[in-house]
Design brief:
Helix content: 40-55%
CATH topology of the largest domain: Rossmann fold
Structural class: alpha/beta
Number of helices: 18
Shape: globular
Strand order of the largest sheet: 1-4-5-15-10-11-14
Bound molecules: pyridoxal-5'-phosphate
Radius of gyration: 21 Å
CATH architecture of the largest domain: 3-Layer(aba) Sandwich
Strand content: 15-25%
Length: 457
């Protein structure tokens, strides 16, 4: 075989020492978060009761290109990073394609996903500020797991509001969090005002990410020594996740490899924003060109069918408003096995880049995603997360196109995690009972009706 190894590793000295802030190179900056009361950009003072000080600084800074990674975080990263960059020789062979396929595998830590990269950073700044603990929500459970690991390491309290249906369906995820010391509450709950209100209005609801965010924010702002942390969507999270792309690029550069195509799944946009960061930076500065594709579920198509508008980040409408591609904070996606991709909106940074034509987006059906997951698992050995399998689907499709045209394209995709806690979904696929839910235009219109009515700014 070629002289490119199956796995390209970086040694400790080659690991990135700073995160890259993509916004610094954007001509059209992502729109600022707005205060829903005044419709003015949120100030650092207004954000301070919700988020840690340093994280607010990172959130609002769209000028500084690099942020040094504190030593404590770099030491923690060393426990599970660099993550492997794998040349998918076996998949290439199975597909009989001339394409060269690489994937960056973020599932080789106990949280099972890329989310630990930002969890440790957010927990670190909370600890530095002398806080007692943090609150958060979790949908599928990966973020809550990652945060509970980071909090255990640093000695912080961790309160997780877990979407009720996954609390019930994924008891083992919940137990991993409890093992790491987190306090896990199914949401909506009667422990918060907003939770009681949602329960009164929708008795029997199994919850949503938007509801859980509302509860976690309420607890943070009303408890002394606590702040709220979020696992995706925000600029600070994309900043921390740039470690994925920086490592991938450093590894590829070692062998002079330039990807033609970069593919990632997109829920709130953090893994994709992180993976593409240094490549997109080159593209924005006019130094190189790459085709970049965001892949989302057909059941929750914020980029491909959403509106680019200011919207709330939660169902309870208590958070600041972000300008993003959104289905409306009132949109409740149909049951979908890729829980981590069920958010109504998309990172405002990625939304702006998509709006300006720097990247493409496509949506894929659940059964097609699991067909790709199964094919990948059988030849590459890794059992992929359903979320990650959205990227696998499109990587395989692009490689098959190369088989038709004979083009030797280089494809890089993000393999964000493992699917061991998603076996109910795999079971449905294996039994042939998995269904595809694609919202009708009428169903989407209901979500759009929940968009705040903002006078032209
Ligand atoms: C959370 C999650 C995602 C989606 O979140 P992004 O913020 O869009 O990256 C994708 N894959 C896995 C494994 C996840 O846990």
């Amino acid at each position: 075989m070629a002289n490119i190894p199956y796995k390209i590793y970086l040694n400790e000295e080659e690991m990135p020492k700073a995160w890259y802030n993509l916004r610094a190179d954007m001509k059209n900056k992502p729109a600022p978060l707005l205060n829903p009361g005044t419709l003015k950009p949120m100030t650092a003072e207004e954000l301070a009761p919700v988020f840690c000080e340093e994280l607010v600084r990172q959130e609002l800074d769209d000028q500084t290109p690099y942020f040094e990674i504190p030593q404590t975080i770099r030491d923690f990263y060393k426990m599970y990073r660099p993550s492997p960059l794998v040349r998918a020789y076996c998949l290439e062979k199975a597909l009989d394609t001339p394409a060269k396929i690489y994937y960056k595998f973020e599932g080789n830590n106990t949280s099972g996903s890329h989310k630990l990269n930002s969890a440790i950073a957010q927990a670190y700044y909370a600890k530095e500020q002398g806080l007692k603990g943090v609150t958060t929500e979790t949908g599928a459970g990966q973020w809550g797991t990652a945060l509970s690991m980071a909090c255990a390491y640093l000695g912080l309290d961790c309160k997780v509001y877990m979407v009720k249906c996954s609390y019930e369906q994924k008891p083992f995820r919940r137990e991993v969090m409890r093992t790491y010391g987190a306090n896990v509450t199914p949401s909506p709950s009667n422990t918060t005002e907003v939770g009681r209100k949602i329960l009164a209005e929708h008795p029997g609801t199994t919850g949503s990410l938007g509801c859980a965010i509302s509860e976690a924010v309420e607890v943070a702002v009303s408890s002394e020594g606590y702040r709220y942390v979020l696992g995706s969507v925000l600029n600070q999270v994309l900043l921390h996740q740039s470690i994925i792309g920086l490592e991938a690029k450093a590894a590829l550069d070692k062998y002079g490899i330039k990807p033609d195509l970069i593919i990632g799944c997109a829920g709130g946009g953090s893994n994709l924003g992180g993976l593409i960061a240094p490549f997109m930076g080159e593209k924005l500065r006019g130094e190189a060109d790459y085709r970049i594709i965001a892949v989302e579920p057909a059941s929750c198509p914020s980029l491909t069918r959403g509106k680019f508008a200011y919207d709330f980040c939660d169902t309870g409408m208590i958070t600041p408003m972000a300008k993003m591609y959104t289905l409306g904070s009132g949109f409740i996606p149909a049951a979908n096995h890729a829980g981590g991709l069920r958010y109504h909106g998309m990172s405002s940074t990625l939304s702006q880049l998509y709006h300006d034509g720097y990247m493409e987006a496509t949506s894929v059906k659940q059964t097609d995603v699991f067909a790709a997951a199964q094919q990948f698992a059988r030849v590459e050995g890794i059992l992929p997360a359903p979320e990650s399998s959205h990227a696998i689907r499109v990587a395989i499709d692009e490689a098959l196109k190369c088989r038709e045209t004979g083009e030797e394209k280089t494809i890089l995709f993000g393999l964000t995690g493992t699917g061991y806690f998603d076996m109910t979904a795999y079971q449905a696929y294996n039994d042939g009972t998995m269904e595809n839910h694609i919202p009708t235009d009428e169903e989407l219109a209901q979500g759009f009706a929940s968009l705040p009515n903002i006078p032209a700014l």
